[in-house]
């Protein structure tokens, strides 16, 4: 899920030792002294600032990190414009390291051991999305459930990602993908110069998601409207936002966008229920879900209102839109930069499709494409869409023999170092899909290092769907056109907009492939 963030500030994490300044100390300052209000105020401010430093140092103990924190704002400036270089410096400073932003004490975990430990310790730590998430998703969204409630709710959603369900989604994905890639080619025919695929790939993804989730229960103009407005949601996922959702702010715009999306998704749930009640065949995720709910075996279990269903679908959109777009854009970029690998993808396509490039892909055909699957896996290893997820310690967390993360701190497991561990992935910066083809090779022998989708009770619920979608788009593109990457000084630089994107938006020149 796009919990990718870093030193973002969860609303609920406000741990305010500073503001618990005892009143008795305050009055002592005044007693029997000719202190003016100015002196008093200065004394209070000075004491608070000193206390801030003392608390920071007490919590940090021996962890690497600044010896002093910048008063009040801490590392706020770094979190406003995050850079991969900045993060890498932090991760490389130690397996655990400390920072503070607006008095929220944050422990960054960069090693595989500690990152996994946080993700798999629900009694000590639970996810806390970026600050704006509760406002954007609504606080009653299921993704904010924890513990047993979360496990039970999530169990009910597994039915949406069974192999049978994925089979239904494949044909929708295939249709939408072809439609969009054909439009890409039509635009390229009018203007053959390289164009960034940042927004076109995002549009392809959201259209695919909406159709997979809602089929034809959502009208075309509504899907376009949601796509237009969704960018406001992505922009609101900044690490730090203006705290009040006042008109004109990013969070306000994102809330308006969510209202539009929820309106259409709720209507789609209603239409799906009607269609299934009238004996329709399931054609999308909603239909699959409604059928499961009306099955005799389901009797007596939890019911879902139209609004609840809409909120679940919205959480999927929220979780997937940025991560899938990032994954797909880097998939195109990696293949363009490695023509020898793209050639092998095409050889595999030729073998499986047996010369029929128009025939729709099926799940069974995708099963016969191990090289393509290795490409997708490797692309996300080299450039993980989500590099870290913020968690919050619900109580003091003895994470190692000599360090306990204080209660209410934020802990951020990072995935980058696990995915770039040279012992598991030799030459880790290189894009080498072959490393996944050897079943006894170090990449396959160490599945615990592959944290692209997280780990533990909150591990990504949509991972099969996401990887299948990326594979399907790249496979279809590989047979429809050639793409050339226009290298710019920004191509290898990373923009962190919730997830990772190439700074220049990945500029591609497309040329249709023709078959005799
Ligand atoms: C390339 C695409 C994707 C990536 C890289 C990705 C990555 C992640 C990560 C890292 C997490 C947090 C895991 C943790 O805390 O241990 C997550 C959670 C989640 N993801 Fe994904 N995700 C992707 C696509 C999707 C899709 C397509 C869906 C739904 C259709 C989805 C739905 C979710 C949900 C609902 C959660 C929260 C699960 C929970 O809290 O139980 N994601 N994802």
Automatic annotation (TrEMBL):
Its EC number is 1.14.19.41. Belongs to the cytochrome P450 family. This is sterol 22-desaturase. Heme binds at residue 460. The keyword Iron applies. GO terms for molecular function: C-22 sterol desaturase (NADPH) activity; heme binding; iron ion binding; monooxygenase activity. Pfam families: p450. Keywords: Heme, Iron, Metal-binding, Monooxygenase, Oxidoreductase. Its cofactor is heme. One of its GO terms (biological process) is sterol metabolic process. It is an enzyme of class 1 (oxidoreductase).
